[in-house]
Design goal:
The chain has five helices and four strands, in the order αααβαββαβ. It is of the alpha+beta class. The chain has two domains: 41 residues, Arc Repressor Mutant, subunit A, CATH 1.10.10; 81 residues, 2-Layer Sandwich (Alpha-Beta Plaits).
Amino acid sequence: MPRRGARRIRRAGPVPAPCSTVAVPLNDLDERIVHALAEDARRTYADIGAEVGLSAPAVKRRVDRLRERGAITGFTVRVDPSALGWQTEGFIEMYCRSRTSPEDIHRALAHYSEVAAASTVTGEADALVQVFAADMRHFEAVLERIAGEPFVERTKSVLVLSPLLRRYTAGPPL
């Protein structure tokens, strides 16, 4: 019997999401501020203000408003996984049993420190999981643990040879 892809997943309630589902319109100044913070979240409001033509207090007010509206959800650092010993990166396609909800997948994968990201997807697979591991043996062990989850029917994996492009901003390019 042919697979029906993501339609097989039972929707039991809200899916945990990292961001709001309502678009927050940004004007040009807000976009420039968001991009400046995405490049370096430690920049001062005065530094950003000099770049975008606003005072430091005006930048702070805009950042506060963007946080309240959900356009900015936090401030973080970018870490080079290989500098922390994570030398192997791969993606695992998960094919789940018919009664598996996105919440079930989320709940199981949240326990894996090696999982950097996971999403439900279109196509035959039900979810796509980004994994970082110390080496090939470690990646294989993580793959086997994920494949052993009770709702997983099968998996398919690919390894990253060289990252070609990584963007750290969620907004449109300037």
